[in-house]
Amino acid sequence: MPDMTKSDTATVAPDAVSAAAAAPQPDKAEKARSLWGDAWQDLRRNKIFIVSAVLILLLLTITFFPSWFTSASPTYGDLANHYLQKPQIGKVFSAEWLGYDQQGRSVYARLIYGARTSIAVGFGTTIVVTVVGGLVGMIAGYFGGIVDSVLSRLVDVFFGIPFLLGTMVVLNSFQDRTAWVVIGALGFFGWTQLARVMRGVVITTKQSDYVQAAKALGASTPRILFRHILPNTLAPVIVVATISLGVYIGAEATLSFLGLGLNGVSWGNDISDGGAQIRVAQWIMLYPSIMLTLTVLAFIMLGEAVRNALDPKMR
User: Fold this and answer.
1) Which residue of 59, 61, 168, 236 has the fewest C-beta atoms within 10 A of its own C-beta?
2) Cα–Cα distance for residue pair 301/48, rounded to 1 Å
3) Does residue 1 surpass a pLDDT of 60?
4) pLDDT tens per residue across span 120-151
5) 106 - beta bridge partners?
6) In whole angstroms, how far apart are CA 43 and each of 34, 86, 206?
7) Burial of 236 by CB count in 10 Å (0-12 exposed, 13-18 middle, 19+ buried)?
8) Exposed, middle or buried by CB within 10 Å (0-12, 13-18, 19+), for 18?
9) CA distance 33 to 241
């Protein structure tokens, strides 16, 4: 009996070793991805994000390199030869492709150069709103108490002023409305929503263990705010800022349509000019309206895609 057991063991052992060697070895454990890594993986598979990102990339290219798309001047008008000339659809990317307006200016050239104005105002306003609203919300949420009460009431005061009405009142006092003036007016009344978002996120984040540990170790307040709290509150801020960017582009066009926007080439100005000629020359108003709609929609869709990717509850 003992000999048989030894023989069986000797026979089985090599087979077990061979089977173990032949079995596929488990792969190395993947490195755990961060919130941003997971979000990027989701965004890469999101068709809405891809479409909106491609459209925004095209708009940014037009903004920085308008001469790549047209050699015509957006301000030169030839009334003798180009007054309300109809679009020449076959002449793609030429000055007469989308027709001419009542001053003999190329609609296509104004469409290209108008993108620079709208995108610049949108990005500039978003930066101002993000910085001002982010700082106010972060200070109010972190310190609490009397500081929070004072800043929250300040936010309520600005929130009670209609956004477009307040901006119109400010812009009406300026004769020369440059891009910086419009950005300042929009940012002056537009920072409240982001301040509220930042305040709520900071109130939640400051209760985290790593923030309490930093306080216990004697970290200074600026270090806690900008090293520990700010990086962990960027996700909702980025979402709100991205969606708001499209809103500010639409607001600039609305102000220009009402005659209180930029003194220059702008989609809003062209839409306003086209309204007077809509019965005889619909293309003057049509093409800027399409570009404005696509631009605003692209940024809103991008913001929605980023929000869904960064919010675990949306997955």
Assistant:
1) 61
2) 7
3) no
4) 888 999 999 999 998 999 898 888 889 989 99
5) 100
6) 14, 42, 29
7) middle
8) exposed
9) 25
Report d(CA 258, CA 254) in Å as an integer: 6
Say if pTM beats, i.e. exceeds, 0.85. Answer: no
What is the torsional sign of CA 297, 113, 254, 179?
positive
The DSSP 8-state label assigned to residue 262 in this structure reads -
Question: Hey, what amino acid is at 135?
Answer: L
Instruction: Pick the closest to residue 238 from 31, 32, 35 (CA basis).
Output: 35
How many other C-beta atoms are found inside a 10 Å radius of the C-beta of residue 37? 11
